[in-house]
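tokens incoming
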């Protein structure tokens, strides 16, 4: 079955974050990277700076020649990592099938979310909107039926683009695509291609698979396929989380009710924060206790509405605990967990959000 893959990539990521956090840099050529004139390298440049020919991996000295009036800024990796967690969490609100590629980039399989009244490009637009709301940053989205086409699509209308590559257009788009823009064609391969007069997808398509294997080794087959729009649609995702829990073991038997309740409250709060962080909600709450003989006992219940709220989790946990403690009183461990997780954003959307 044909899949629907979205590729999201933040625009001029580090530079855009710097412009967001320092209004003086808005609309200016901003170059983020090592500032040293003899050793520094450019991490990225704002689109304003790119007009001067500045780009990633260029020596800072060279950037100064091309763009002497640019604003040179050191990277703040902590901030970029925080933004990255924010966007990854937004993706997970839509689907578990997420493959992060780098801090600012991921593939999502949203095949199962597509409906008659909700196309893949609309879902991509919602994700772009959510990223803007949460981070005040733009990204570009590409939609297609495999990963490499989705990636090409996200690069086609940067910045702030949303591009769909449909099956009917693949041949033409690939034919005209400069060879260096094929995912998987790095600098070295690109130079070799250009020497061989393979300038674009059309030239690549004119080569036989055997020729390409002879020229590029193992990579040859995948290049042959890419020229024809064939590529993987399998998302290599992180393990899907089934539950979230917190527990603590005491060094001695505890009978102090207030202390146990306080521990459960802390656990409920941590579980709720984790749910919120992952953009998940749960309707199944479990309390576990261990007694001094090291036997575990659990009690579980379903609540009416899915939640990510500490109060709801705690109140339910207290009821479960009250049931359990009738039987046992020497408590060594108490834990609170939530299961049957589902994604928060998508499942809460109504048709009105799609209009
Ligand atoms: P990219 O997504 O490749 O580039 P970008 O987001 O800056 O610009 P755009 O996607 O709009 O073309 O890389 C993401 C970040 O990774 C980039 O902001 C800085 C960092 N990076 C480096 O530090 N060195 C590099 O050589 C590259 C390519 C990126
Ligand atoms: Mg990017």
């Amino acid at each position: 079955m044909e899949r629907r893959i979205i590729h999201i990539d933040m625009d001029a990521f580090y530079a855009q974050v710097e412009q967001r956090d320092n209004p003086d840099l808005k609309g200016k050529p901003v170059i983020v990277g090592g500032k040293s004139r003899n050793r520094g390298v450019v991490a990225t440049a704002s689109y304003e700076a790119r007009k001067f020919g500045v780009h990633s991996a260029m020596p800072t000295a060279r950037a100064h020649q091309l763009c002497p009036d640019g604003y040179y800024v050191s990277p703040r990796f902590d901030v970029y990592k925080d933004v990255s967690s924010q966007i990854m969490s937004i993706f997970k609100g839509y689907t578990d099938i997420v493959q992060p590629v780098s801090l600012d980039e991921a593939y999502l399989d949203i095949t199962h979310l597509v409906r008659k009244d909700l196309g893949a490009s609309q879902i991509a637009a919602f994700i772009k909107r959510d990223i803007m709301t949460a981070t005040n940053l733009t990204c570009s989205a590409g939609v297609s039926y495999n990963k490499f086409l989705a990636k090409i699509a996200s690069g086609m209308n940067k910045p702030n683009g949303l591009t769909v590559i449909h099956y009917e257009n693949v041949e033409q788009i690939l034919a005209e695509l400069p060879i260096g823009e094929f995912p998987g064609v790095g600098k070295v391969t690109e130079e070799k291609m250009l020497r061989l007069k393979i300038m674009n997808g059309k030239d690549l398509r004119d080569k036989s698979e055997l020729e390409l294997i002879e020229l590029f080794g193992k990579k040859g087959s995948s290049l042959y396929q890419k020229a024809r729009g064939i590529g993987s649609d399998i998302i290599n995702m992180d393990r899907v989380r089934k539950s979230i829990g917190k527990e603590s073991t005491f060094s001695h038997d505890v009978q102090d009710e207030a202390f146990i309740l306080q521990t459960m409250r802390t656990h409920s709060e941590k579980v709720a924060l984790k749910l919120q962080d992952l953009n998940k909600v749960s309707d199944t709450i479990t309390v576990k206790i261990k007694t001094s003989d090291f036997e575990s006992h659990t009690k579980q219940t379903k609540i009416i509405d899915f939640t990510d709220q500490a109060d709801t989790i705690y109140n339910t946990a207290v009821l479960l605990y009250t049931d359990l403690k009738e039987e046992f009183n020497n408590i060594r461990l108490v834990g609170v967990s939530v299961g049957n997780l589902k994604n928060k954003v998508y499942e809460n959307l109504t048709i009105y959000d799609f209009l």
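note: The radius of gyration is 26 Å.
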